[in-house]
Fold these 4 entries.
Entry 1:
Amino acid sequence: MKKIIGIGGNLMFDAAGTFPGYPRAYVNHDYVAAVKAAGAVPLVLPVLSDAECVERQLSVVDGLIITGGYDVNPLLFAEEPHKLLGETLKERDDFDLLLIKTARRLGLPVLGICRGLQILNVEAGGSLYQDCSEDDKCYVRHWQGSNPAQATHTVSFLEDSWLFSIFGTKTGTNSFHHMSIKKIADRFRAVAWAADGTVEGIESVDGAFAAGVQWHPEMMHREEKMLALFKSFVSKT
């Protein structure tokens, strides 16, 4: 029987049209396509704030993907907003935090993608650069702006890591982020880096399977190695 992979949803607000300001539940379709291509059943989980509902959501899935989206609110790691901080959404932060806590309690494997990596780190007590420019070492272009399926910089991997078992020493990735990891939470270790030292991958060290990548492999899932990431995650469930 195929495994069911929950995909954490997002909220989007219409800027114009018939219903300006109207909230819509969604995920980018590449998440759905990547999970299906990996041989699992994708199930989109809409944003909720009710703990009982979230637990019921997660009770029917075998693994969880935390998706990209809004910036993480820096108040969650005891910092005031930087002038370069992007848009945040409390409902999304609350939902992701609840998803992560509940998934850990239920023993579900978790994969965080882009913002998903960041909120995994923050939930566990880590912190973020609110903009890559805050990191004096950062020189790689981490926001490519277009062509989402195209790799634009390299990422190197730690040998004794799950990500190394998929990608080997180095691979090319796309890049669509301006926040990045500053302090890594004790529950995780860094296992992948861009050439400028920006953390591009984390994995849990506490026995439960949780990992995060800073790039968007779902947008590149038509490439063999990127699809292998999702296949390997499904195998962990």
Entry 2:
Amino acid sequence: MNHKIIIAIDGYSSSGKSTLAKEISKKLKYKYIDTGAMYRGITLLAIRKKIFNSDLWNIQNFMPVLRDINFKLRWNKKLNGTDIFLNEENIQSEIRSLKITKKVSLIAQIPEIREKLTLIQKNFGEKKGIVMDGRDIGHSVFPKSELKIFMKGSIEVRSYRRYQDLKKRGEEVSYEEVKKNIIHRDIMDTSRKISPLKKSIDSIEIDNTFLSIEEQLNLIFQLINKIKKNNHIIV
């Protein structure tokens, strides 16, 4: 019998969570779920509704919109990856812009939004066989997941990764602007009252400042093999 597991990957902004999670999911033929993309999708919706244009931010004004959201994941054969759809619209490319990045931490700290998205994320994991990355997967969404990873890296390396990614997308940004934003996001993510970014006691920490993706994958599959051996399962 093929007993699938849940792999939870948490960590700091631009620490390589998504890249690693995608590669693991491909090798295991698991479903990959980027929870950060969900928060970015809500942020995109809030920007479109001009929520941030008012000094009188009130989550109650946004709740009717939030109740009707619907996320779907669809495999993109051309790009060999998963696209995220919000209310049937493919938002994969639009949510990676700097304007979304600057606002997403504000959205992510709102309890009602976290509660809504956490419920959706838990439903994705009902049949297991998923790799999910985010900020609170190991200690909040799937505290009983079989493998928990916590990713970190130097602020310089993380900032450069994000800078390069934005430049490839055609955005006019400076390295210093990106670095400032990531420092701000670290503070917001670790200090929020609801589900802050933190390492679970049973998480395996990986500092990938000087590790290639191949070296990271080797570490992960060593851990997966230990899980298989100790639990007598086939992943």
Entry 3:
Amino acid sequence: MKIIKTAALIASGSLALIACSQNTPAPEAAVAPDAMFFPANDDTGISPDTPLRITFPDPLTIHSEGVIEITDAETGEVVDRIDVSIPFGPFPDGRMSGATQEDRIRLGRESVMSDYQVNTLQGVDFHYHPVLAFETTAIITPHNGALGYGETYNVHVDGDVFGLSDRDFEWSFATRDAPPDADTGRVTVASDGSGDFVTVQGALDFAPAESAEPFEIFVRNGRYDELVFLNGKSDIILRGESRDGVVVRYPNNSAFNPPRGNPSRRPAFQLYEVSDIQLSDFTIQNDFIGQAEALLVRGDRVIIDNMQLNGSGDALTTYGSIYMQDSELIGDGDTILGYATLFCLRCTIKSVGPFTWTRTREGQHGNIFVDSEMIYLDQPLPWSVTDDNPEGQKTRGVLARLPFNGPREGPRHERSNFPFAEMVLINTRTDGIPPEGWGPVEEEHAEFSWENIHLWEFNTMDMEGNPVDMSERHPLVRVLDAEADAELIANYSDPTFILNGWTPEVK
């Protein structure tokens, strides 16, 4: 399954995101008989992390005016307020098209966070989409932690949010009395409200920082439109009911959430400074293009099992130690931005451009693929497709690249490459890979040596299992020999050897 993400998706109503302007006065409220609410009006037993949904009879878009307020039904206090006239982010549609370099700096890295919509997840601020439109449903995400247990709330939504100036929307609901019992070691997430939580983020917020036995979060089939961020926790298993049936997705990238130091804010789903985490049996998708990870992992002993990851540029960014098996990753170039030790077994990587930008640090192993597949997607880079250039631009599907990247002047340590980069393919099937296979790689010179770079292949095949012609491979590539390199091949086929003594156990 290839997910095509273009600007047309944003405008089509499948994902309607409109930049914000000034607010206008709202009309007198009236419940619309043709709109369906979730939670339903006067419903009880609702989890406080529940996103609010309004479903209309026809497709809708989100407009740049109007206010959403949630008030305590007993006291009348406003517990959450979303002013939709405040832009969602510096580039709300995730595109910098038409922006000058000065605009990019002013609206990006140097912008003031509070000038835009902000949601705080586990202590970190992100720009976010407080309202999303999917076909006929508006998804309203209150600020994280705004609602509590044992409360009754009134919701007021200006019709202007949807371009309906003649009516507003009001309804009420009551939250359940108390959170689930953490001592059970397991909670469920269900988008229809039938579980302990309605969002993955709500369950991750509830999970203990660490535990003697892995804390399991089971996610029932459904669509989860949410930005997910796990910060500093350990010993958690996040398991979906089915790989295709559970889809956690969000529109995010480096234009919408520009860099502000660590942690990165551009992934749809991020594990930050974690350990002993397992992700199994669900899909993560980033709905924006550009530098837009499906998943970013910064942690030790992280397992990615039977997952579908659909991102754009840098679709999977890795730090630490990661074991990945029986999973598929789709991206638009530099599809793995690899700082980690990553061992992939029986994985499929599909890439519009280069499969990896391998950035291994000294003293660790890099990207290792065993019994896996590398499939080039022969289509243009999505951001290159414009009205002026409808055919877009294609780039070669090399296995890894290691170009010079940084300022041409200044101390070498401030602009160094990665002279210990490592990527090894063992029994890997490939399709659409150019004859040289790898590159470009920075040329050797006095300050940069190829001596410790490992770009190795053993028994690389086409998709039918026939040996690939290696005669035109990049001069840095080493083709391993079954007899002469038998010990090396055995070691690099062993995750315990690669992962510095950690033997991953998928639960």
Entry 4:
Amino acid sequence: MAQLFFVLYLLSVIGGIAILLGEERSAVSSIPWILVVVFVPIVGLLLYIIFGYSLRRKQLIDVEVREALSDAPLETRAVPVTEVQNEPDRELHSLSALIERLTSTPLTTANELTHYDDSREWLSACREAITQAQHYIYIELYRIEEGPWLDTLLDLLTERIQDGVAVYWLYDDVGSRSLSRRYRKRMEQMGGEVATFLPVRFRLLTSRVNYRNHRNLVVVDGAVGFTGGNVLLSELSRMPDAVLPLATSHLRMTGEAVRQVEYSFALDWYVATQQLLSPQQFSPTIAPQEWTAEPIKVQTFPTHPTDDFPSLEMILTHAFLQARRSLYIESPVLIPTSSIQQALISTALSGVQVRIILPRRGRSWLAPKASHAFFTDLLRAGVEIYYYEGLREATYAIIDEGCAVTGTPYLDFRSFEYNFDLTTVIYSEEVAQQFVKRYEETLALCHQVTPRQNKLWRRIAHGVMRLLTPLL
């Protein structure tokens, strides 16, 4: 019997290590799983197959499908490269070029771009746009929670469908797991098209549970697009009249930039339904003479765990290293990969003012504690870390007060390895100043984190947390 167990142990360890090495994962993500497989034989291998199996380099969408979706109504007019190179802040040209090469998303323009720091304002703007819809509505949300806001939205969408507006609604199966069957059935019976992203039938028997669609977007008639982080819907239901903003970071945009948001939705819709969205009859264009303001240069790009390279990690690392004077960051959590951590440290050591705002508490009790494991080196390098007393899910970075990066990704391992995220880079000093203003207002409500005595037990705990980062 003992020999049989030993043979099973060897097979599970050898098999697990072979699978890990065959996936060409980084050492940072491979070592924790190898330890699990070695110290928890058989069970560790099963855990890896269920939760750790990587989708990297797995083709969810064929090249032909991407080309088909990029035609007709979803095409994006790119800003000529020479136009960017001739600008004073042309050092950011390398960032836009990197984004285009990694994600096939060219630089484009928005006629109008509004930044919201409050979920209620963003939802109100979305409802107003939906009310005015004449042809079609795309909605994609990571988390849907029951409450008055959902009832109001469903009633509004039902009215628009009855008026002949086509509605396509996509939501994440795991992110919206609290949604009851009654509400799911009501959504399906509205008359529009409703789909779930990577549905999980047996949550303990599939690696799909680990790969989630974190994107949040709304597109109305191709004329106006909304993107942003997680809407704090549960807090919205409990505190409809709260004085403090329900802090997230959202955008409303018009113009050619909306096509990139549409394209992201079309990709996800195909993954969920295997259906190509047919070209819409209505593809509005805005006459240039109607806009007197200078168009705002933006890139809204999706990142996937199936990308050939860790696109999001590479883009953010490059963006942080572009800072020459200041780098201001707010994120719900800070569990950086090695390259992100080194970029923050290098930027701070080069004399750039690097500030990071984090919430004291989060949706997960473990994530804020895991962030502590990375504080010591960051603080030693001169990075300023601030705590906000309360819950915030705003996610953005401001580079030299002239460029803003915002979207659904967090500064954590899951966003870089497991999530389907949507990010917008805004190359506009005017818009960046809006972010700076909000950042300074939030900073006034925070207190700065100071280095603590690095006792032995704390160093050991932090070492364990860093080692387990890929498993969080």
